[in-house]
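Re: weekly structure request thread

Next one in the queue (174 aa):
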Amino acid sequence: MGRLAISKSGHSPNVGQSATIGVSLILETENGFCTPITHFHLHQVMTKFKKFTLIFLVIVVALLGLAGWFSYSASYSEGERMGRIIKVSKKGIFFKTHEGQLNVEGISSNPNSLGGVTSVWEFSVDGGRESLIKQIEQAMRDNKRVTIHYEEKFFQFSWRGDTKYFVTKIEVLN
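Done, posted below.
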């Protein structure tokens, strides 16, 4: 490893002259050679620093892009729900999304109750799936029981839908 030294140089002024004193950095290498650090050396160091910074920024941007893509498109879970579709709508001011509600009918755990327990489950449909949207609307108009297959996303993005549940397929039951 080299050793960094500072050397002073200058000369004494004659009468009527000003003194000049210079400071330079000298790099002493292991084999005993002394090399002054010049503008060229500093340029090499800065070039390496700029290259490292650029590579670091490219890696950070790539990782952020990968994380964004993953959170936007990856599914957390998949499943299906059965019931009757009670609402389908197209919502939004800037970003139009397709939203729906499924009346999920269940069996009551109370033996004295008449009928089942119902709950409403909200879902979204990707905008580019027009044939699926038409199937959902038709099942709602015909008041048919359906099985809805869906994917649950990690995050809900407002331009994509109001929920994290996105319908992938619908089956109309008899």
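DSSP finds two helices and eight strands in the chain. The chain has two domains: 1-51, 73-108+115-172.
Next request, please.
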